[in-house]
Amino acid sequence: MQVYKAPLRDMRFVLHELHGSAELTALEGQGELSADLIDDVLEQAANFTETVLLPLNASGDLEGCHYENGVVRTPQGFRQAYDAFREAGWNAAASDPAYGGQGLPASVYKLVEEMICSSNLSFGLYPGLTHGAYLALRSHGSQELKDAWLPKMVEGRWSGTMCLTEPHCGTDLGLLRTRAIPQGDGSYSITGSKIFISAGEHDLTENIVHLVLARLPDAPKGVKGISLFLVPKFQQDADGNPGPRNGVSCSGIEHKMGIKASATCQINFDAAKGWLIGEPHKGMRAMFTMMNSERVSVGTQGLGVAEAAYQAAVAYARERLQGRSLAGAKYPDRPADPIIVHPDVRRMLMTARAYTEGCRALCGWVARALDEHELSPDQQVRTAAEDRVALMTPIVKALFTDLGFEVANLAVQTYGGHGYIREHGVEQYVRDARIAQIYEGTNGVQALDLVGRKMSSNFGRPLRSFFHPVLAFIDANLEDEALADFIGPLAKSFGTLQQATAHIAANGLRDPEEAGAAATDYLRLFGLVALGYMWARMAKIAVGKRETAGADAAFYEAKLVTARFYMERLLPQTGALWSAIRSGKASTMALGEDRF
Asked: Per residue, what are the HEC states of 410-473?
């Protein structure tokens, strides 16, 4: 049986104490936001996810989606849960009030999103993709399109998708063949096939709004010839309600190893009516608004699964009796001690805890930058925030999903043989987490984006958005003896990151394959240092509060213990990663293609 309780105390710590929720009130439209209001939103989200979504997670995985004659039905209970989700206003929570949204900042909604992913990742994909489509349309669509389609998407009566991949091309979108023919009335006729379309067909909403990449007749070759179109399942009638069926059909759903309650569809467009979003041949720029949003959301999926898996592992380790403590029986009145007394089990639990809480803190830092970029009245602040988001997006996507998968595997290992069977539910977390390392750009592609684009962008300006605050924090706290166990390891690993950055920049200019061979190790190194920065900051807060915290003293003490574990047992991986980076491409590229 799966267990989950939203980690509200830690979420409040990240939002209020680590990143300062009071500063959110200075952002446009957030003047009425208060700590009490934020806490109320989080508590309501916790109640909904724990009582409505969690009970459907295992059953949805077991039943999966059903496909018959072009119709997709979600598992039992999903439609009722979605109606309740929509009626409670969760679809609209983080959207613009101009289109019926509540305007909740990303700093808060990312925590809600985490809870959704922890309790039922498959369910979360439906509203999550709609929000990404909303962002792309709001940012690049004409006012006429926005007025016609966004209100019902925000309300959740209509959902959204992104249609990129085709049977013959995945990451290389320059190869796509879907065609868009102008019709003379401002619309276009869209014809082509797309695969791996999450939430492409389902029974949760009245209409589905597809954002489709396609080529115009005069399109240049490659990615410079791609345009973006809004193509609905149903056209609108005169009253703005679903009208005639469009030329959009689902020819099948994928049978997957995980997220089985999320419909992954093959979608065909047969002279479907659509409308251009943004400029002709500039579709990738518009689609990247959605893709980058989804990449941070996919990172949050990794975090959400990690939290659920960690909680399951802790619950089992406390209950499962096996052997005696190496230091002598801890529970002599029982036939055996619970496995939580054993060092190797503790290693797994502490690793899961340190990664999960560290990712939550880092996600909060990136979410704050999302809010500042969107809402700050200061152009300089917006620019700095944009740099931070651009730099950290591939790291959040790849690192969080890698660690989410690792933590899910640690949970199975904690359970032993019972983890490998369906009954306890943790094997589902492994299967569900695995896709997050693949979709929205594989993690290898994220690493290439980091070293190939983000490092050199604007003469290295995005790098400074991370390097400068870390260096300032180290300098400001280097002489604080109470923080020596945290600042020293952070400073050492940060120096390693600086060396690795310079090494890749120099060698990558000479030979792009050198950068490519180092990319995945570099992203992992960068991400571990970023987590170290968060843990050092959290440790500083805990040191300052544990003596006067009263009932919360145990919380801050646990923060310090976990921070120390991270610095001593996990952050040292940066040394091995630096060694691998320095070794260069030779052994990676030496073997002939015909020898594999």
From this structure: HHHHHHHHHHCCHHHCHHHHHHHHHHHCCCCCCHHHHHHHHHHHHCCHHHHHHHHHHHHHHHHH
